[in-house]
User: Which sequence fits this backbone?
């Protein structure tokens, strides 16, 4: 999740911002409370309600006892009101030279990018694409993308693992490209070069026709990075023999499954006929190599078709950012509870940090059956870590998949010395040893887990 450095920065800058704004009834926060606050935000994504106050509602239909037991609604809103990521004393005004539109999140974004890079071994196949953060408020950075599922919002350039969707690096589009190095090749050229500065040699990068150009392919090849991407027919430098010409029917001379190619070291340009002409550039594959794919016909049957290997590999490796967006959409964190525009960007960073943590957990615990939803719940509980500004009774969690005893592992194994027995009024089934064939009953109940157990040896074995 978030490195401890980010939690420290948020805690320090939130307290300083509250003092600067003379926030009424503000009590200085601590790192444990900020972690608990983030855990609550993650839980709200798992259990969405139309209004944040409903989590503290007295109506049992809306009331969430786990969230309301950590802090009051008033305290939650007060932290959201004063939440701040940057040093207030060093922030520049819009009229000052060097003003950065992303200044409020820049430090946290840089730390997070470095953490993503250091905590995962980069794969040999990655993709670069744009991702959208839903936002309909007023902002000079807001973009309109009519062909995207999220049409209005912030645009994020992302480099992800092609197979898992792990986010290696991201950058928010702020209406200009921060880097002007490596020549003037247009926005797509500069975005790819910026995202690939830390990419290891012999890595494959896939991207779509917004980014692809011949100068970009040549630049990446000089850096020993292989690339494949669809290309627009109006890009400069494409071989004229492959391009359609007005006034004749030369663009229709290819039949379905046929292709043409032109090679000029190190770039190959391929034109392949599917339902329409597809153009692709590559420095990674033999342009003459082909594979057989199957296309579904109008009658529902699948017919074999010849396809260039480069196009088949492009289709396979291009979906990394889409996988990340799919995981983001499952349990969205973003809320409309504040007027701070940059907070939507912070929720995005929290989301991708959770997703990257889940992907890393899945890779290192391949035998675990924990789902994305269950992992987020466990992550939120570990962030809260029994923190509370109230005195509360512990809530028992029933884990349908992994919980053999109906108690979450983080509850069952934490502070074992506090798990003391006491006598109940009636005898109940032992949660550890009782079965359908042989029912064993006991009056001993664990003070923390709230389950009935035999005094020996079940009470000791249950907590091992």
Assistant:
């Amino acid at each position: 999740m978030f490195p401890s450095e980010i939690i420290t920065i948020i805690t320090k800058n939130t307290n300083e911002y509250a003092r600067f704004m003379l926030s009424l009834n503000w009590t200085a926060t601590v790192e444990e409370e900020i972690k608990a606050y983030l855990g609550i935000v993650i839980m709200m994504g798992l259990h969405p309600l139309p209004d944040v106050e409903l989590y503290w509602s007295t109506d049992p239909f809306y009331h969430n006892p786990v969230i309301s037991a950590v802090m009051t609604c008033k305290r939650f809103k007060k932290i959201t009101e004063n939440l701040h990521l940057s040093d207030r004393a060093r922030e520049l005004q819009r009229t000052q030279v060097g003003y950065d539109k992303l200044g409020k999140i820049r430090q946290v974004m840089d730390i997070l990018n470095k953490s993503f890079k250091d905590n995962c071994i980069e794969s040999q196949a990655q993709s670069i694409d744009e991702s959208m953060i839903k936002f309909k408020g007023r902002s000079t950075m807001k973009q309109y993308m009519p062909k995207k599922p999220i049409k209005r919002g912030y645009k994020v350039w992302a480099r992800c693992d092609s197979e898992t969707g792990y986010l290696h690096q991201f950058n928010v589009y702020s209406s200009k490209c921060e880097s002007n190095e490596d020549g003037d090749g247009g926005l797509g050229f500069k975005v790819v070069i910026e995202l690939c500065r830390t990419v290891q040699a012999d890595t494959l990068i896939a991207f779509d026709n917004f980014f692809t150009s011949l100068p970009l392919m040549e630049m990446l090849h000089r850096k020993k990075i292989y690339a494949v991407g669809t290309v627009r027919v109006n890009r400069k430098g494409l071989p004229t023999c492959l391009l359609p010409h007005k006034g004749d029917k030369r663009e229709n001379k290819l039949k379905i499954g046929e292709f043409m190619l032109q090679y000029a070291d190190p770039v190959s340009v391929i034109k392949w006929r599917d339902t329409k002409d597809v153009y692709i550039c590559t420095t990674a594959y033999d342009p003459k190599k082909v594979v057989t794919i199957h296309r579904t016909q109008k009658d529902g049957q699948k017919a074999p078709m010849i396809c260039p290997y480069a196009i088949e590999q492009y289709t396979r490796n291009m979906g990394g950012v889409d996988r990340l967006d799919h995981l983001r959409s499952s349990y969205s964190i973003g809320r409309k509870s504040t007027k701070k525009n940059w907070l939507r960007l912070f929720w995005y960073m929290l989301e991708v940090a959770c997703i990257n943590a889940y992907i890393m957990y899945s890779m290192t615990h391949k035998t675990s059956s924990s789902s994305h939803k269950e992992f987020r719940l466990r992550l939120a509980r570990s962030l809260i870590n029994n923190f509370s500004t109230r005195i509360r009774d512990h809530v028992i969690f029933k884990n349908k998949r992994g919980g053999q005893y109906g108690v979450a592992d983080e509850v069952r194994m934490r502070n074992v010395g506090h798990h003391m027995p006491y006598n109940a009024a009636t005898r109940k089934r032992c949660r550890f040893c009782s079965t359908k064939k042989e029912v064993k009953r006991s009056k001993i109940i664990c003070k923390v887990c709230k389950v009935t157990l035999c005094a020996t040896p079940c009470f000791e074995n249950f907590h091992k």
In short: The first strand starts at residue 125 and ends at 134. The chain has a mean pLDDT of 87. Residues 241 and 262 are 8 Å apart (CA to CA). Residues 342-364 form the longest helix (23 residues).
